[in-house]
Amino acid sequence: MAFIDDIKRTYMQGSMLMRLVFINIGVFLVLHLAVFGAMLFKVPGDEVLQWVELPCDLWLLLRRPWTLVTYMFAHYGLLHILFNMLWLYWLGRIFMDFFSPKQLTGLYLLGGWGGALLFLLAYNLLPAFAGDMIYLVGASASVMAIVVATAVYAPDYKIGLLFLGEVSLKWVVLAVIVIELVGFETNIAGNIAHIGGIIVGAWFGVRLKQGHDITCPLNIAIDALVGLFNGRKFEMPTFRRPKSQKRPSSTGTQQGSAASTQAGAHRPADTVSEEELDIILAKIKASGYDALTDEERDKLFKVSRRRTP
């Protein structure tokens, strides 16, 4: 069918952000079809949805571990998925101005798991929720992680709002968080998960400013798993960055020239990875060259010398 082929082509050629949106919409449609089919056989729709929703009961979760992933891609309410996907697309595009597709995917998953963890802890440890049987569903925690991470990393990024003009991203996100807290009692389980996503997003932004990417271990593990299914030899993921290595002797002249231009200062001979360079360039774009640390300026200098013909 031409329509299906067009969807497949759009999905394969689209960015990771659009793929996440497509997956959420696809799951939304499949769930509605599944519930409709169940109703024809007099099966309650709630019983169908519970197979993808995250239960607060730990024993039930042990029997349905896949819900730790499926819940963050599942929606049933039209307004629920509409607002989540608008936020994901809107703030996700800003996120992609600074970060990579892998970081987007990793943070989406970590944000969802952060929300799930806080939800499970609250409903299994707090007396106020004792005896409740609640299910968690929706991408809100994942989306909140992406939104907050973007605001923490680039707080003064300007976005245009109707009737308000240009507003710094930090104030928009702060308003969203306040609204979440004010309406806490109307959606307790969901808001608890949102807070978990907010914490993960803030953690990502703060740590990345310090030069550490919390999504890196997860993305390494995902790459290894994908490689295993693609027939490549499995290798245990390495989470630590390699220590500094000496450059080949052919670059010795460049190193000597770099040292002489810095009044004899000694520069380490370690290489600069593409990931480190991307982080430095993103920091310059967000806060300017003056925001770089001495170590980051040193790394940028070495890259420029190495790439000069």
End-to-end distance: 52 Å
- What is the C-alpha radius of gyration, as a whole number of Å? 23 Å
* Quaternary structure state of the chains depicted: single chain
| Coarse shape | globular
Low-pLDDT residue spans: 237-270
CATH topology name of the largest domain: Rhomboid-like fold
How many domains make up the 3D coordinates? 2
Q: From the coordinates shown, what is the CATH architecture of the largest domain? A: Up-down Bundle
Estimated structural class = mainly alpha
Overview features:
309 residues, Rhomboid-like fold, two-stranded antiparallel ribbon, 4 strands
Descriptive notes:
With 309 residues, the protein is mainly alpha-helical. The protein folds into two domains: 7-226, Rhomboid-like (Rhomboid-like fold, Up-down Bundle), CATH 1.20.1540.10; 249-307, no CATH class. 64% of the residues lie in helices and 4% in strands. It has helices at 2-13, 16-40, 45-49, 58-63, 67-70, 78-96, 101-125, 140-153, 169-182, 188-209, 216-229, 252-261, 274-287, 294-307; strands at 54-55, 135-136, 158-161, 165-168. It has a two-stranded antiparallel sheet with strand order 1-2. Strand 3 and strand 4 (165-168) form a beta hairpin. The longest helix is centred in the first third of the chain and has 25 residues, at 16-40.
